[in-house]
Design brief:
Blueprint (H helix, E strand, L loop, with lengths): L2 H8 L4 E13 L5 E14 L4 E5 L6 H8 L7 E6 L2 E2 L5 H7 E4 L3 H4 L6 H12 L4 H15 L15 H13 L5 E5 L7 H18 L2 E5 L3 H7 L2 E6 L2 E7 H6 L4 H10 L6
Parallel strand pairs: 3-8, 3-9, 6-7, 7-8
Antiparallel strand pairs: 1-2, 1-4, 4-5, 9-10
Helix pairs in contact: 6-7, 7-8
Length: 269
């Protein structure tokens, strides 16, 4: 390999999204339909150990974007690269080891008929070659990482508090030690004090593991607290992006100012 090619490989971002677009077909009649843009074109990069916040009003395309990156939706056009490899070239195991999602409401995303132990065991059984002893050790380490005791392995989701359900959902996402965690508005069902508890847990995990996050949220105060970069979507388009400090303290677009004002009543710019 030439020095120039080696240098190109070394500077590849962890995640690179280029001109990504997604639209949905909506029926307009018995035999007719039209395309409605969800988002696009969207381009950005994410570096190891960093957090990118995706913000915007309801219907701006945030969830569709992160679900496309997470592999739950298929893009109409554009490219997604993880460590320089096109996402479409990765098999399901490789995708799970690269990108994991935490969904908005753990109460609906955790199987109520399955214990916490089995919830955490399943991804390891499906995506790794670890033996039973190694899987159990990985589960215990992940529980400790999210602040839960081994006793919780025998619990069912309905036996857990709201915060504990979030901790289990985070543990399920972290069990494979992925490069990227996508958190899709996971704080919306919690009150403000509990939101900060979960945010601080995510920051603690990031410091310990070097995990990168794509974080979808409405609350700009929390976004500023935990993000390195912010991407603002409006009607499916990127209208502003930059460091958390620059976007929050010197917003350029009216929609960004509105988002800040809605969560920071003393904001007057």
């Amino acid at each position: 390999m030439s020095l120039s090619n080696q240098s190109e490989l070394n500077v590849q971002p962890l995640l690179k999204v280029t001109n990504l677009c997604k639209s949905f077909k909506h029926a307009t009649g018995i035999l007719s339909s039209r395309e409605q843009l969800a988002f696009g074109p969207v381009s950005f990069t994410l570096e190891p150990g960093q957090t990118l916040a995706v913000v915007g009003e309801s219907g701006s395309g945030k969830s569709a974007l992160v679900r496309t990156i997470g592999g739950m939706l298929i893009a109409n056009s554009g490219d997604i690269y993880v460590k320089g490899q096109h996402l479409s070239s990765l098999n399901s195991q490789q995708r799970c080891l690269s990108i994991r999602m935490i969904f908005q409401d753990p109460s609906s995303s955790l199987n109520p008929k399955t214990t916490v132990g089995k919830i955490l065991h399943a991804p390891l059984q499906l995506n790794t070659d670890l033996n039973d002893k190694q899987r159990h050790q990985q589960i215990l380490e992940t529980l400790k990482l999210v602040g839960l005791l081994p006793d919780y392995l025998a619990f069912y989701p309905n036996m857990l508090s709201s915060v504990q359900k979030h901790q289990v959902a985070i543990a399920r996402a972290m069990i494979l030690n992925p490069d990227i965690i996508i958190a899709d508005e996971i704080l919306s069902t919690l009150d403000i004090s509990l939101r900060f508890k979960i945010v601080n847990l995510l920051l603690k995990i990031q410091k310990a593991k070097g995990t990168s996050y794509i974080f979808v949220a409405h609350n700009m105060h929390l976004v500023k607290h935990m993000s390195d970069q912010i991407l603002v979507l409006h009607q499916g388009k990127i209208i502003e992006k930059g460091t958390a400090k620059s976007v929050c303290e010197s917003p350029q677009e009216e929609q960004t100012k509105y988002l800040l004002l809605s969560h920071q009543p003393d904001y007057r710019k």
